[in-house]
Amino acid sequence: MSHSANEALFRPFKLKSLELKNRIVMAPMTRGFSPEGVPGQNVADYYRRRAEGDVGLILSEGTVIDRPNSKNLPGIPDFHGEKSLAGWKNVIDTVHAAGGKMGPQIWHVANTIASADYPPNPDETESPSGFVKPGEKRGHAMSEEDIADTIAAFGKAAADAERLGFDVVEIHGAHGYLIDQFFWQGLNLRDDRWGGETITERARFGAEVVKAVRAAISDDMPVIIRLSQWKQQDYNARIATTPDEMTEWLQPLVDAGADMLHCSQRRFWEPEFPEIDGEEGLNFAGWAKKLTGVPTISVGSVGLNGADFLGWFGGAEVNAKTPDLDRLVRRMERDEFDLIAVGRALIADPAWVKKIEGGETETLSTFSRETLGALV
Ligand SMILES: Cc1cc2nc3c(=O)[nH]c(=O)nc-3n(C[C@H](O)[C@H](O)[C@H](O)COP(=O)(O)O)c2cc1C
What we know:
The chain has helices at about 40-50, 80-95, 145-165, 180-185, 200, 205-215, 245-255, 275, 285-290, 325-335, 345-350, 350-360; strands at about 15, 20, 25, 55-65, 100-105, 125, 130-135, 135, 140, 170, 225-230, 260-265, 295-300, 340. The mean pLDDT is about 95. It is of the alpha/beta class. The chain is globular. The strands form 4 sheets. It has an 8-stranded parallel barrel, surrounded by 5 helices. Bound molecules: flavin mononucleotide (FMN). Flavin mononucleotide binds next to strand 4 and helix 11.
């Protein structure tokens, strides 16, 4: 029985072969518990607990394609190589046995660095133009061959995802990593066909990745691409400053075969273009759905009533005990977007969905930085 106030979150959802029991998605979150790139039983059990906790769709932590320096921490799982793929096979079998649905988030970090000593040789990292921030050089600009091989590696990972039995595949095109670096005018300075003055031109790389992924898997298996305006290098950066620009960015990705757009925001209630529809206006996922017509996923500080996820790096404890879901429910009731991803609240408490559904919020575990020290 669902807690009636939150009913909009507990409606089923269907997209191609993907059937979900509710609208709640576990956001992709890097945990770094996969030594040598291999997800072990502890990782499978971590995702199993979310499946048992009735998460509608689990998106894995970012897991990387077969390219040199495609990850920026040693504990990030690979999505290539026999041992890693065997680990992922165990993950999806374990999640399915618990009644869950799951897709891997396929990733290439470009030239970002997550710790001082990794990757071991930053000069060997690859990116559109050899910049990690506007004006800050690192690594080298990709050659035509690098680009072709990278697109093919995304396709290969998608084919492996279907072969292993995953329900969906998500391409990580957000947050200032490789695909997003091509979108971003500040980092894509190329004057060949992979760059250009317009966002449609700079979306070509992302669109080619989507096409390769689409071509590698069955027509019926949904492809999601995650996108963001903000970058870890610059929280105020924006790819699209008007709805027209947003269409010019997103439509090529949809035309290439993306079935759903995962629109990453730090706070889901913030309007994307308040100058057009006001302070209660559509968020990023709302505009993306309105402009393209495809279903969208929103995200950002659900159930936390506190610091957004970059804020807590300062050490803030986030109060998840009294989640105020009213404004989320209001947006979902009018189908502004289709699914809502939940990040930190689900790291802290694998039973978050069940407790919300049952109205047992007083037993929710709270999120703090310490929570990240173990796979709960
Ligand atoms: C520990 C941690 C790791 C994350 N790793 C990823 C990642 O691998 N891929 C990604 O797209 N986003 C990543 N994110 C962002 C989350 O998916 C999500 O968008 C963000 O935490 C906001 O949701 P929340 O406020 O519900 O936590 C990460 C966030 C956290 C807290």
